[in-house]
Amino acid sequence: MNLRTTLAFFLLLAMIPAVSPAGRLAAQAMPPQAPPPQAPPLQNSLGYSDFSTEALLEEKFLAVPDPKLAGEELKILTVEPHLAATPEDRKTAEYVAGKFRAAGFETQIVPYRVLLNQPKVVRVEAWDENGHLLMSGPTREHVAGDSAADDPRVVMPFNGSSGSGDVTGEAVYANYGRIEDFNELAARNIDLHGKIVICRYGSNFRGVKVYLAEQRGAVGVLIYSDPQDDGYSKGDPWPIGPWRPETGVQRGSVQYLFKYPGDPETPGVASTLDLPDSARITNPAGPGGSEPHIISIPISYHDAAPILQALKGPSAPQNWQGALPFHYHIGPGGTRIHLVSQQDYQRRIIWDVIGKIEGSQDPDAWVIVGNHRDAWVYGAVDPSSGTASMLEAAHGIGALLHQGWRPRRTVVFCSWDAEEEGLIGSTEWVEQQGHSLDHAVAYFNVDVGVSGPDFTASAVPSLKEFIRGIARSVPSPLGGTVYQMWQLKPSANNEHRQSNAPPIPGEEVHVGDLGSGSDFTPFLQHAGVPATDIGSTGPYGVYHSAFDDFAWFTQNADPHFVYLQQMARMLGLEAMRMADADVLPYDYVTYAREISAYLEAAKHRASDAGLGSLDFAPAQAAASRFSAAAQRLYAAQAAPSGDLAQLNLALRQTETALLSDSGLPNRPWYRHTIFAPGENTGYAAVVIPGVNEAIDARDQNLAAQQLQVLTQALNRAASTLEAAH
Ligand SMILES: [Zn+2]
Q1: Average pLDDT, stretch 234-259?
Q2: Ligand 1 centroid vs 375 CA: distance in angstroms?
Q3: Per the residue annotation, which of 419, 655, 679, 693 is the catalytic one?
Q4: CA-to-CA distance for 335 and 325, rounded, in angstroms?
Q5: CB of 386 closer than 8 Å to CB of 373
Q6: Strand blocks (E) in 219-374
Q7: What's the gap in Å between 382 CA and the centre of ligand 1?
C-alpha cells in the first residue's frame, strides 16, 4: 500500500537541490564491482558501556550484503505477479523461508484465513448528454517495450475492499477527495446523493476518498491518476522515464484502515485457521466495520480523460485543474456513468514467514524486522525492493551466526502477506502475539525499500536519534555515509511522514512521524512497540501498476542494486545494535520535547476553534514531569553499569504506558495516545489524536475527556521512568 510514493515524489522532485541529478548519475555510472566506501567507525553509541566489540561485529556484518545477490533475489521475487493468497504468492513465501533457513533462522510459514476480494467483473462506461458513448473500459495497461504488463496473470485494476454492484449516475469531480474538497462541493450546494464521484489520486489515502464520498451519499467512486501528479507533467513516462504512462493504473485497498486494519471480520482477534466463524463479525461493511459498501474502481487517465472533458457545470477551481489538455469542470451534467463491480469475496489463506534467532541473554525481548511480500502485480519497488534488502540483511546476520555470534536479545525477521489489502498479515500476527509483544523492544519496517537514491526515515520520537546513528555507520553508494547524503536533503523526502514537532536547533536531518499505510501500524499503534520505517526514494510513477517490474527498477531506481545493499545494511544494523545494547537506546528526552510541542500546537488549535477554555495545564505539567524523568535516566543510558534488567524493563514499559485501554473515540483498536493515522488523511500521522480530533470536531466535552486520558498516560509514562534506576 504505502503511498508515501506518488505525492511524496512530486514534492521531492520540486525540492531536490542541485547536487542530486549529478549524484544520481554518479550512482548509476558506478560499476558494480567498485569497492564500497567506508564509513568511519563509531566511537560510541547510546546504550553501550563499551561499543568496541559491537563496532567490530558491525564491520563484519557490513561486508556481507551483496548488490549482485540482492539483484538476483529481486529478479526471482518479481518473476511472476504475486497477489496475496495466490499460488505465486505461496511460492515467494517458500523462497523467503528458504533464505531464512539458510541464514540459520528458526523458520515457520504462518497461515491465516482472512476475508479478501478478487475481481470477477470490473466495467466502466460513460455517455455524454446526447447518449453518445464517451468511453468503455477499463483499458488494459500496456506500453510498447514492456511485455511483462501483457502477462495474462496481471490482475485487472480493482480496489481491495471495494463493494460489488451495478450503478449508474451523473459524475461529479472532487479533486483529491480530501475533506476540504468535499466541503467545497457542499459550499456550492452540489448534492452527491446518487452521484458517481470522480477524483484523482494523491494527498490522502484512497480509502479516505471513498469513505468521505460514501458518507455524502455517492453510489460509486472512480479514482484516477492525473498526469500532473505522477505522469507526463513530472517527466518522461515509462518506458522512456520513470513516470506513469497513459494506461497505468494505481490499484490499492480502500479499506477504512483508519478505523482498524487487518482482516475486516476480526478486529483485535487473530484469524488463525482454527478460529470459528462465530468469532467473526457479521457485517464488516456495517457501522463500525472497516469495509466500504459502495463501489470504487481505479482507472488510468486514458479512461478518465473523456469523462472529465465532457463534464459540464461550474469551472473547477484553479488548484483542482490537473494536467490533462482541457479545462476541468466540476459537474454534474454532461456525463452519465455506469459502473459494474463484481467482487469475489472469500476467506482465503495467506502466509507470513517468520524467522527467529533466539537471544542469548534476554530471549523474551524481541527485535523485529519486517517487510511485506505480496504485491498488486510484480511489485519490483513495492515491496520486493524491501524484501531483497531484508534478505541481504538476513544474509549478513546469518554470516555472523555461522561464525558463532548470538544476539543478546531475540531477533525476528518477518515477511508479511496481504499488506496491500489492509496490513493484514502483520495485523493478524500482532493480534496473535498479544502480550508477548509487551517485551518486544522494536519493530523495524521497510516497505518501498528502494525507488531511488534519497534516504528517508520515520520513527517514534524515542528512535529518531537511533536511526540517525545507524545512518552515520552505513556507507552511501555516492561516497561518505547515508547520513551525509541525507543531510543534503534533510526534510524534502516525505510528504506523508512529516514531523509534527519543530526541529531542535542544530538538527541536521529530519525524521518523520509514523501515520499509517504500512506494517508498523499494528506494532506501534495497537501494541505499543517502538517502531521505525525506512526507505530510499526517487521519482516513481508506476506505483501499484503492472509496470512496477524488474525492467522499470533496473532502468530507473537502482541499476547496480547498490541501494538495495545500502538498505540491507541499514536494516541489519538497526536489528543488531538494538539487539545487543546493554541498555535500550530509547531517547525519551526527544519524545517528551515533541509531546510538549504537540500540546502547544493543540492549544493554539483549540483557541482557533473557539475552545479556548480547555485546560491544557495538567497535560503540560505531566509532559514536563515526563521530560524531567527522561533527562535523569538519559545519563544512566549513556553510561550503563550494574544490573540493568530493571532499567531496561522500565524503559520498555514507558512506551506501553502511552497506550490507553479504551483506545481512541470511535476506533478502539487504535490505542496509542500520541500517534494514529489521521481519520481524514489515512497516511499522515495525527499526533495526540484523541485531543486533536475532538478539537477539529469542536467537541469541547470530548476534548476535555481526551486531555484527561492523555494526562493519565503521560503521568504513567513519567512514573515508569521515575521508578527506574
Ligand atoms: Zn507496499
Answers
A1: 97
A2: 7
A3: 419
A4: 18
A5: no
A6: 220-224, 252-253, 295-299, 335-357, 362-372
A7: 5
Number of C-beta neighbours around residue 163 at 10 A: 23
φ, ψ of residue 365 in degrees (nearest 5): -85, 105
Pick the closest to residue 349 from 114, 88, 94 (CA basis): 114
3-class SS shares of the chain: helix, strand, coil, % to 5:
40, 20, 40
Query: How many angstroms separate the CA atoms of 502 and 596, rounded?
Result: 11
253-263 tens-digit pLDDT: 999 999 999 99
pTM (two decimals) = 0.94
Q: For residue 229, what is its C-alpha cell?
A: 501528479
Q: What are phi and psi of 659, to 5 degrees?
A: -85, 150
In our burial notation (b when 16+ CB lie closer than 10 A, e otherwise), range 507-544 reads bebbbbbbbbbbbbbbbbbbbbbbbbbbbbbbbbbbbb
> Residue 629 Cα, ligand 1 centroid: separation in angstroms?
38
Please tell me the distance from the alpha carbon of residue 167 to that of residue 214, in angstroms, as a whole number: 14
Place of cell 510459514: 109
80 is catalytic: no
pLDDT digits (tens, 9 = 90+) for 11-45: 333 333 333 333 333 344 444 444 445 555 566 89
Torsion-angle region of 47 (φ positive above 0: left; ψ -120 to 50: alpha; else: beta) = left
Cell of 686: 495525527
